[in-house]
Design goal:
By secondary structure, the chain is an alpha/beta fold. It folds into 3 domains: 114 residues, Periplasmic binding protein-like II (D-Maltodextrin-Binding Protein, domain 2, 3-Layer(aba) Sandwich); 78 residues, Periplasmic binding protein-like II (D-Maltodextrin-Binding Protein, domain 2, 3-Layer(aba) Sandwich), CATH 3.40.190.10; 69 residues, Porphobilinogen deaminase, C-terminal domain (Double Stranded RNA Binding Domain). Helix content is 36%, strand content 24%. It has 11 helices and 13 strands. The strands form 3 sheets. It has a 5-stranded mixed β-sheet, with helices on both faces. The chain has a 5-stranded mixed β-sheet with strand order 7-6-8-5-9, with helices on both faces. A 3-stranded antiparallel β-sheet has the order 11-12-13, with helices on both faces.
Length: 299
């Protein structure tokens, strides 16, 4: 008998993250967990950047529909791919311990080591803007697909290098690439979250046992930053919340897509984190040019 049906995308990384979630639930409850792969629009459409065809919802809307119509009890997600505002009736109810938040550069030992005019494959507005800010000579081209597909395109010579999330590579057992320490990650990068229906008390209670509270606190603060900023899938935004003793250190930056403008801000606070995030958002937007401010719709 299946106690929980866990929905997931069908990519190798998504299935690996679903297996991690299943193992955590079995360890906590000894329950039977069925993994239910669901094909999303984001998986089907591989020839265009997500920002052009609907954004992060393309990774989640089919999973949300399966939750709401009862085909699955919960769904596992890479949290950086989850929209800031969830579908009605659905909540994030647990997160696994956060993994390495950094990006890895594959194809060179460092950004500085890339040849002049090197072609870098990425469909992330954040990564593209950060690279252009550091190296305006670089050529950024769209590169989509799962991890294996992108690495294969690199090996075939389609691009000189690419950036991938260290957490995803680690979960797939891949040790390729060099970790980039001086680029802030996407909000929620490295975190795996599980959603469920708000009215499903049995499932939310089972999931509560596997929630890593520190990860949830950090990621929800980063998502609060995105919501206050009014960022979209077109926005080049980075943010990271990390515990520092009893306090939380929060760093963020916003950039023009061409990398010509970048503003960063940070705080370390023990209390009043929501107010600190609001002040940080105001500081970033006050310093931004009209062109950069126009990319956001602050709450």
């Amino acid at each position: 008998m299946t106690d929980l049906r866990l929905g997931t995308r069908g990519s190798p990384l998504a299935l690996a993250q679903a297996a991690m979630t299943r193992a955590a639930l079995i360890a906590a409850h000894g329950c039977a967990v069925e993994i239910v792969p669901i094909v999303t629009t984001g998986d089907r459409v591989q020839d265009r950047p997500l920002a052009e065809i609907g954004g992060k919802a393309l990774w989640t809307k089919e999973l949300d529909a399966a939750l709401l119509d009862g085909r699955i009890d919960c769904a596992v997600h890479s949290m950086k791919d989850v929209e800031t505002h969830l579908a009605a009736g659905i909540a994030i109810v647990a997160m696994l311990p956060r993994a390495d938040v950094r990006d890895r550069l594959i194809g060179a030992d460092s950004v500085a080591a890339l040849r002049h005019g090197a072609v870098i494959g990425t469909s992330s507005p954040r990564r593209g803007a950060q690279l252009r800010h550091r190296r305006p000579d670089l050529q950024i081209v769209s590169l989509r697909g799962n991890v294996a597909t992108r690495i294969a395109q690199l090996q075939a010579g389609a691009v000189d290098a690419t950036l991938l999330a260290a957490a995803g590579l680690d979960r797939l057992g891949l040790t390729v690439g060099t970790a980039i320490d001086d680029m802030l990650p996407a909000p929620a990068q490295g975190a795996v979250g599980i959603t469920a229906r708000l009215d499903d008390r049995r499932t939310t209670a089972l999931l509560a046992a596997i929630d890593d509270h520190a990860t949830t606190a950090a990621v929800m603060l980063e998502r609060s930053f995105l919501a206050r900023l009014g960022a979209t899938c077109h926005s080049s935004v980075a943010a990271l919340a990390t515990p520092q003793g009893a306090a939380t250190r929060f760093r963020a930056e916003i950039l023009l897509p061409d990398g010509s403008e970048c503003h960063a801000a940070a705080f370390i606070e023990t209390t009043g984190l929501d107010d600190a995030v609001a002040a940080l958002v105001a500081s970033l937007l006050d310093r931004a040019s009209p062109a950069l401010r126009s990319l956001f719709s602050p709450a």
